[in-house]
Amino acid sequence: MFSRILRSTIQNNIIHRNLCNVKLVNGTIIQKLQDEKQRNLISHWTSQVRWLNSTSTSSTVQTLTSKINSNTTLYSPPNASSILNLQNLNIGVNVPSRSVIKFTRSRGKRQTVKTVLRRFYRLNWGIWIRTKAGRHRRFWTKSPARKRRCRQHVFCNSTQSWLLDKMVSPYWRKPKYWVDDPYTPYHTREEFWITRKSPKEY
């Protein structure tokens, strides 16, 4: 039974190549360890091998030694590419989500997601706008044309705007009239027939 446990333990890549070097020579274990847990594990193996050596014949110990030496596969630490592949796999598993509170405990009303108000802005005709990602990153390396584009805003599509509308309360979906609002020319879109408010001039 001990031989089966020892062989399965080594085959399951528990022994680290950088931490220990395990060899069976005449029923004894030569160990070079740095980890305390690994040292305790090998000392336990040493006592078991000694017990096996005292209770069994020498042919059994030699057979066990040959099997372990032939089936030993030491674990090597993963390289950088495998770590990156594992990180890419974990991205698909841990999908970020943001819950919406429809009814608060205090007032029983929908609660606004504060990050939506901090990252996006809603125009009065229903579209949400945002700034470009990375507009301040490595700004000194960008060309003048790219710096000008970094000061511009980006429209969210209809699906994103509908999602953002559901993440805020009705208060933030109503038109706001601020003094010296720089977005005043963009709050109306009369050239598009769906967003037109006033009658078309012929």
From TrEMBL:
This is Large ribosomal subunit protein bL35m. Keywords: Mitochondrion, Ribonucleoprotein, Ribosomal protein, Transit peptide. Its main location: mitochondrion. One of its GO terms (biological process) is translation. It is found in: Mitochondrion. GO terms for molecular function: structural constituent of ribosome. It comes from Microctonus aethiopoides. Belongs to the bacterial ribosomal protein bL35 family. InterPro entries: Ribosomal_bL35-like (IPR021137), Ribosomal_bL35_sf (IPR037229), Ribosomal_bL35m (IPR019338). GO terms for cellular component: mitochondrion; ribonucleoprotein complex; ribosome.
